[in-house]
Every structure is written in C-alpha cells, then in structure tokens.
Amino acid sequence: MLNNSPYVRRPASVTRVMGTVLAALVPAIGAYVWQFGPAILGQLLLATLTALACEAAMLAARGKPLRLFLTDLSVVVTAWLIALAFPATAPWWLVVSGTAIAVVVAKHLYGGLGQNTFNPAMVAYAVMLVAFPALMSQWPSALPDAITSATPLDALRTGLREAGASVASVRADGSVFGSLAGRGWEWLALAYLIGGLLLIQQRIITWHIPVGFILALAAISGAFWLADSARYASPVFHLAAGGSMLGAFFIFTDPVSASTTPRGKLIYAAAAALLVYLIRVFGAYPDGVAFATLLMNILVPLIDMKTQPPVFGHKGDNKV
Amino acid sequence: MNALRKLFSFNGGVKPATHKAESTRSPIVPVKDIPLPPALVLPLHQSVGGTPRPTVKIGQHVRRGERIGAADGYFSSAVHASTSGTVVAIEPRTMAHTSGLAMLSVVIAPDGRDEWADLTPPDWRNMPGEAVREYLRDAGIVGMGGAVFPSHMKLVAGRQTAMKTLVINGAECEPFITCDDMLMRGYASEILAGVLIMRQLLGAAEALVGIEDNKPEAIAAMQTACAALNDDAIQIVPVPTRYPAGGAKQLIRVLTGIEVPHGQRSTDFGVQCFNVATARAIHEALDYGRPLTTRVLTVAGNVANPRNYEIRLGTPMDFVTRQAGLGPDTDSLIMGGPMMGLRMPALDVPVVKATNCIIAGSPALFPPPPPEMPCIRCGECARACPTDLQPFEMYWHSRAKNFGKVQEYHLFDCIECGCCAYVCPSHIPLVDYYRFSKTEIWDRERQKESADQARERFEARNERIEREKREKAEKLAARTAAGRTAAAAGNTAPPATGNDDAAKKALIEAAMARAKAKKEAAAEGNIDAVPAEKTTQAGMSAEDKQALIDAALAKAKARREVADTGSPSPESAPETKPAKKELSSEEKQALVDAALAKAKARREAAGSVTAAPATTDTPAAPAEDNTRSPAEAAIAKAKAARAAGQTATEKPAKKELSPEEKQASDRCGPGPCSGPESGE
C-alpha cells in the first residue's frame, strides 16, 4: 500500500540471474564429463553442499533470512565455479575448505551478497593454489592410460625450460596437447564459449568484458608469438588453454566484483588479459586467471570512477 | 517526406505491457453525458506556479468558465468554475497528491443548469504576444501531460536562438494512459489548430507531432487532419514505442537529435515542447474564449469498463471511477501511469488539471513488490536508464547518505521515470532512494539558507548596536564639552580646549573599544560573550529591548522571505512555520519536510517526463543551487548558528557535522528500506 511508483516490475530476480548462469555452465560440465570422466559431478555436488551449508550458517549468524538468500542461487554459482576451476582429482577436503573460504571469508565477511570486493571462487582458488601448489596443479588426464597429468600450460612452460626446446617441439612431444591447446581442454573452452554466448543473449552479461579480454589476450600473445614463435605459443593456444574462456565469460564478468561502466569493462578486461598472459608466461603459476581477477578487483573502484559515461545532454555532440 | 525524416534514439528505456487496448475500444465520453457530482472541489493550486487568490465569496453564484482564482503573478495560472452553481465553501481540502496534504479549494454546489459565463473570444491575431500570453494565463492553460507548467510562460522564443522546432507530444508512453490517443483520434483538427497558434506565437519554423507507433489510429487521424491543412511545416511523425519516449527531453531527442541538458531550457536549443491536449486547450481558449474547465482522462485498471471521459475539473475521483464501474476490491487510486503515477491519499480527491489518468489499483493488479535483495551490481538499471545515469551507484551512495557523492553521480539529472526500478532483479525501490536523497539535499539547503539569514541578521544587529553606541558616545562627549564650555564661560577662565578634545576622544575611544571587543567576541564565535557583556552593561537594557524587537521583526521578515523563495507551492507555508523550533524539533521537522520535498520531487519528475521541457527547468530550480556539498552546507550552517548565538546550538562547533549525521542516521535506521520510507 505504501510503495511508490513504479507499481509494475519486470519479472526479474536474482534467482533468475543466477539460475541462468548455472544453465550456461551445463555445456561445460557436459564437455568435462565427456573428456575427463564423471569425477567432476561428485566434485560439483560436494562443493554445492558445502557452499549451501556455509551460506546457511553465515546467514543464521548474521541474522539474515535463510530461505530468501539460500534460494537466490548465488552461492551455488560460486560452488560450481570452484568445482570447475579446481582439479577434479583434488582431494575432497581441498574442495570443502576452498568452498568454505569462498563463502565464509570472501563473501560473508565482506558483507554477503553484492558486497564482496573479490570474486569468491577466485579467492578460494588462489588461497588453495598458494597453500597446496602440488595438489592444485595435477589435473585429470584426457588420456585413457593416465590418471593425472599437468595442464597444457604447465607442460608447455616446463618443456620450454629445456635447452633447445621450442613451442613446436614441446607440443610434438607432449601427449597432453591437442590440436588447438590441450587435449580435451579445447572442448571445454568451446563449451564455455557456448555458455557465455547464452549469457550475452540472455542479457546476464554484456559483450564488453568477454570481447575485451579475448581481443586483448589475442593481441598480447599475438605480438609475442610474431616476435618469436619458437618461444611463445600462438594466440589460439592461449585462448583455448587453461581458464581463458571460463574467465572471459564466467569469472571476469562477475558483476559484483567487476567494473560496471562500458569503458571500464573494456579496460578491466584488457588489463586482466595482460596480467593473465604475464603470469602464465613469465610467472611461477600454471595459470593466471585467478590472480589476474583478484588484482583487477582491487582496481575496480578506480576504473569505475574514471570511466563514468557522460549523462544525457552532456555528451558534447549536442548541437546537431 | 515523413518517411524520410531521420529519427534519433535515446539510450535505455523499457517496454512494459501497455494495457492500452482496453480503454480505446469506444470514443471519449463527452462531458454532457456525465452526470454532475453533488459538489465540485476546485483546488486553487493547479499549476506548478504560484497559488491563485480566490476571487469569489461563499454563497456567490458562479457560472462555468467564471474565474474563481486569479493568477498570483506571472508564474501562475488562473482557475475557473467548471459548472454553474453556488460557492459553498472556500477551505483546505485534501489534494490529489500522495502526501495527503490539504490546500485551499473552492467548493461549488452545481445548480444543474451548467450555464457558461459570457464568453468573448479574444482577437488574438491582432494582440501583442504578451497580451496573448496573459490571456492564456487567465484562461488557466497549463501543461496537460501531467506537468501542469503554465503554458503561457513557455510560449516565448529563446533570447539567443531562433525557434526552429515546435515539438508536439502525442507519444503517450506510459502504460494504461490513452487520453492523448483518443483525443488525437477524435479531435485531430482542434489539436492542429492549437499547434498553429503555438507555432505562430513562438515563431517556430516547423512543428513535429511525435506519436508512438503503437497508436496507428491516432497517427492516421492526425495525418488526415494535417493533410487538410496543406501545411508542409507541420509533420506527424511516428516514433518507436519505448518508455519513456513521451518524456519531453526524450521526445525532443528522438525528433530533433538534440539533448537538452538538465537545468537548461529547450528554447536555448530552438525547441519547445507541448502536449497534444495543451494544444487543444489553447485552441479552445483563443478561438472560442473558453477557459480550461474540463479535461480528457483515462479511467483504467480495476474497473469494469475502462474508457476515456471528458471530466469537469473538481469532480471527485470516486465519482469518476464509478462511471466506469469501479471494482469492489480496489484498494487505491493512482493518478497517472503505473511507472510514475501518484497514489492518491483517498478515493474522493478531486480531478485536477494534471489528472491524465486514474488507475484503480487492486492487490491483483499491482501486487506488493517482492522482498528487496542486495544490489548485485548487474548494471541492468544503467542499461535501462534513459538519462545515461549509473542508478546503482546513486543507490549505494543514497543508502550511505553520502549526498555529495549522489550529486556527483548526477542525481538531479534523474527524471524518476522508474525504468531502473522496473528492471531491477533485486527488486530495490531505486526511485524511492533518489527521492529520499533529493529531499534530504533540499532540506539541508533550506537549513543552510535559514542559517545564512540568521547570520546576516546577527551581523546587521551588531553593526547597528555599534553605530548607536558610537553616536551616543559622540553625543555625550559633545554635551560634556558644551557644558564645560558653558561653565568655563561662566568662570571667565579660558577653556582648555586641548583637554576637552582629549576627553571627547577618550570617551569615543572607550566606546569604540567596547564595540570592538564585542564584535571580536562575536567573530570568534564565543556565544557566551554577548550575553555576558549585556549583563555587565546595565545601561544598555533599553538598547537590548530594542534589539530584541528588531531581531523578532527581522526574523519574521526572514521567515516570510523563506516562504516566498523556498517554494512557490502552498506547502511551503507549513514547512516554514516551525522554523524557530527547527533545531530542537528537527526530527519532526525533517519528516514533514521530507514528505513535502518528496512531493515536490515527484511533481517535478512528472513534469519532466510527461509534458513540456521547460517544466523541468523551473521546478528544478532549487536543484540548481545544490551543487555545493552538503558537508559544506552543514559547516556553514554550524558557523552561522554559532554566530547567531542561538541557544539551541550547544554542539561544539567543530563537531557540528558528526552530530548532524548521527541525527540523520537516528532518523533513518540502517535497514535498506528505512531511508526512503522515512519520508512517508
């Protein structure tokens, strides 16, 4: 009775937003199962249950309505991203503690839904990678005879350390490599791309961050590759390898922790691509998506402040 | 030619369900087919300008079209009897506004004859422009799209720029509302006659009638009438259907490509914008001499037969809705559309010039909003905003009561169209937060203004006391000198002129020093010093008395000035009354002010979207002055209050800002809803 205009609302909800993100992850889960076996399903379930339990506990502790916030599905999105980002061979406790850190520390200690400065899933990944680097670097193999193997990015970097090695020679040796990047990983990248396009089509994300990230990563890796193709992998490899596609459509686009203005999103995504490349190629870690996300999250307020779009009537092209 | 016209686009906008088909099945019910209500309540304040003075007395017989309220100054508009009958009361009645405030209204008991007053159409073609404008003011012509800005004030070309385009707003973008649609279908040639008048008064080169393309019948009717005129300089232009395409600035943008910035007049860009119903009203006034006594409005929502009616101004809304078969479960009436409309405080408030639509609301039609969730910064609101704002940023800062920041994000460019709240997946009542922020900022501005006045008052008083003291000292010295001279003359001893001068000088100096000390004390903000000195100088009691009287007079005057300048609406009277108690009962005051300013904000917003471009300019005037940060205002206020030595300001000067903020947070709890709701 007391509410004011507008009295009508579009049937939109946080649950619908998060549900669409989950739906967009389904192709990738399918590709994962197909290429790496069904272990990921158990990991998804484990992460989901842990996340819901932690969310419920934190909501109760903070005196927030349980039903309203548990059904918004935001914590399930976090759980699924953790499950997909962690190696499927990781021990159960690694997933559980990573998820707990994401929900309790990165989300609720920062104020809960909408308040987290850092992407919770990437906080979990970064913390676990620093704490348990060996466990976080062993991935299930797409090959029938091996249980685990290094990721293609890891294999490439390790291979290039040997004298006289070139990208071509390492890729020819390594069984983890496929035709674009890693065996099996290429399909996963394609599945993330399909899911990401669904997100754009459903207006859950805008094109700015994925396009900005992909173009910037292609440009940076392309420049190095053109300069020395023996030492540096091609742009196609970088885009199809590791977490590039997952990051481009599902991680960097997290609305809470990402830049929000159109120009800001492009800057944010391009800078993230630069960091990803630098960490991958010159850093000590196998992939740079998580660290790039967290570093860029810090810069978001500054980027947003400096990229405010001009408002109606102040665009400078006023006189026609 | 029409097909070739290049249209422009504005960003954002939404496409809510239109609900327009229901009320467009049958033509407008003419006024003669609607029974007379038992009483017509005609509020005197029916424009955004000054409140007209009543020109009738209780018991007086009036005829339809007779003036009952005369315009108060140029920025005002007259009010007329809408039927013949007897004035039975002139008293405050609840007005058609969410605030539920009452304002002076003339109540007419109809005599059933519905006689027109003697009407003589003016020879407007041979009258100077100024006389035509005054005629329109006295005919009560205001913007009929809901903004009710006095139309005569908009019929002046800009000083710098030649008038190029007259934009006629037939877009009607709000859901449910179809009064302009039906008016264009039924009265196309009358509308165009008004357009010709306006084009002539403005000296505009062309006139463009923008109509949303979901009204093909209206477009066809207008095009037929336009073809009959055989005038190439008038064009009927279908525009894409997208709310808020009918916002004056949005329509000007679509038709001309010009973006009129907030705070500037569209005439400075050679454009002026009027609603189609205003065009017809101008035609009626100038070609037939008929003042504005009726208007066409849509009755929709929870009614059996949604339809358009030509209704006498002052008809109670429940009487109107009963004509359409008001649903029994109606819980409220909304004046305007579902995006920007105002919820009426009662069912029987009168139809006014702004009433373009009455929507009967029911729990089924407008269910209560789902629970508010935290903002997830999805940016959907920014994509929907037709003004290219970042609504979620304004929301964050409004919630934090960081009003300086809210203004940095261009709060006052917001037209409160509601698109952001419409799309928000977290169901946040975003517009309520902006209204709350605007209200708070206006409130602080007002407080700062009154503090400024208090300081000026105090400084003037100090100066006067000092001057009086000096004069007194001089007089005393002169008298002493004269006495001595006389005495010296009697003693025949030569007067020691040097000594005499010295004494005089000493006296003056002593007085000056005293005055200076006092002034310094005041300047340092040592409020105790003033009364302390008063008590020590017993001889000043008469002066003090005089000063008190002066202060009281000045205060009264200042209060009157605040009432005059603060707001042109009658609401300003109650808000300035408790000015003396402002500091002690600030909470109460703030609540009242909040409701009032909110009302004002909403009216301003209604103005900017549904009718004329200039409407946004004048009511927004207080906003223009709000560029200074509230913190600055608070500090200035603190300084001034301290200087004025008001006993209520016991707060330490340097900490002035924090108690104030504390107070603000006390007033509105930390909960997400409590902010805007506190204005209710």
UniProtKB/TrEMBL annotation, chain A:
Record PTM FMN phosphoryl threonine, positions in chain: T151
InterPro entries per UniProt: NqrB/RnfD, RnfD_bac
EC code(s) of this entry: 7.-.-.-
GO cellular component, one term: plasma membrane
Pfam families: NQR2_RnfD_RnfE
Similarity section: Belongs to the NqrB/RnfD family.
Name under which the protein is recorded: Ion-translocating oxidoreductase complex subunit D
Name of the gene: rnfD
UniProtKB/TrEMBL annotation, chain B:
Entry-linked InterPro entries: 4Fe4S_Fe-S-bd, 4Fe4S_Fe_S_CS, Ion_transpt_RnfC/RsxC, Nuo51_FMN-bd, Nuo51_FMN-bd_sf, RnfC_N, Soluble_ligand-bd
Coiled-coil stretches noted in the UniProt entry, renumbered to this chain: none
First-level EC class: translocase
Predominant subcellular localization, coarse grouping: membrane
Membrane-spanning parts: none
Bilayer disposition of the protein: Peripheral membrane protein
Compositional bias ranges of the Low complexity kind: 478-499, 610-623, 631-644, 668-680
Subcellular location: Cell inner membrane
The protein's assembly and partners: The complex is composed of six subunits: RnfA, RnfB, RnfC, RnfD, RnfE and RnfG.
Family the UniProt entry places it in: Belongs to the 4Fe4S bacterial-type ferredoxin family. RnfC subfamily.
Described function: Part of a membrane-bound complex that couples electron transfer with translocation of ions across the membrane.
Protein name: Ion-translocating oxidoreductase complex subunit C
Organism: Candidatus Dactylopiibacterium carminicum
Gene assigned in the entry: rnfC
